[in-house]
Design brief:
Blueprint (H helix, E strand, L loop, with lengths): L10 E5 L5 E10 L4 E3 H5 L13 H15 L1 H14 L3 E4 L22 E9 L9 E4 H6 L2 H19 L6 H10 L2 H5 L2 H10 L7
Helix pairs in contact: 2-3, 2-5, 3-5, 5-6
Length: 205
């Protein structure tokens, strides 16, 4: 499952049947025995060992507490956004979110029982009747608590980088996988900021 021919995160603008324009979303790799966040599947970094009794909200808090050590301003921003995420999200049953058709790369899992599915979509516009995020509830329920936390933080990070001019989620996925890794809990801030510099992102301490 860890061996993928090529992975991509889908980004574009298209129209749902309801007429809502969407900007980006999130994907999972779903197999016969498990469903995992795409960010984590494609990463070579060992992930943090989440305590089985911890909810996804507790895992988000743990990850953001550590991020505060590396990047206090980002941690503060993401913490605020995480508190609003549930109120800004619509969980839908009995649907299959349509993949964005103009992704930049083609991929497929080597395991024939696996497929990459769209689990989340972020609308470009939200209103009192349409929330910002739409999540496939059936796929959501298949995720571990750590993967649920990862999906939410992926959306928050990508939303941030999108506003900074990023047109795909490659860097958002890498940052997300890093902050959930053992390495992020062991490294000092210098390693994190070297990654930001290498990505040429206009994020400052």
């Amino acid at each position: 499952m860890k061996r993928l021919v090529l992975l991509t995160f889908l980004f574009s603008t298209y129209t749902l049947a309801s007429g809502n324009r969407v900007g980006n979303g999130g994907n999972v790799v779903t197999c016969a025995d498990k469903t995992e966040l795409l960010d984590f599947v494609e990463s070579n970094l060992p992930l943090m060992a989440a305590k089985p009794e911890h909810s996804y909200k507790e895992i988000i808090a743990e990850v953001l507490t550590n991020l505060k050590r590396l990047s206090p301003l980002q941690a503060e921003q993401y913490t605020r956004r995480a508190t609003l995420f549930a109120d800004d999200t619509e969980f839908k049953n009995g649907i299959s979110l349509v993949n964005v058709p103009d992704s930049k790369h083609v991929f497929k899992p080597e395991d024939k029982t696996c497929e990459v599915r769209q689990i989340a979509i972020r609308r470009n516009e939200a209103s009192v009747v349409t929330k910002r995020f739409v999540i496939d509830e059936k796929l959501w329920k298949k995720l571990s608590e750590r993967d649920k936390a990862g999906l939410i933080l992926h959306e928050i990070i990508y939303e941030h980088l999108f506003k900074l001019g990023e047109e795909d989620s490659v860097k958002a996925r890498s940052i997300n996988a890093y902050i959930f890794s053992d390495k992020a809990f062991q490294d000092g801030p210098e390693t994190y900021w070297k990654m930001i510099k290498d990505f040429k992102l206009p994020i400052y301490r």
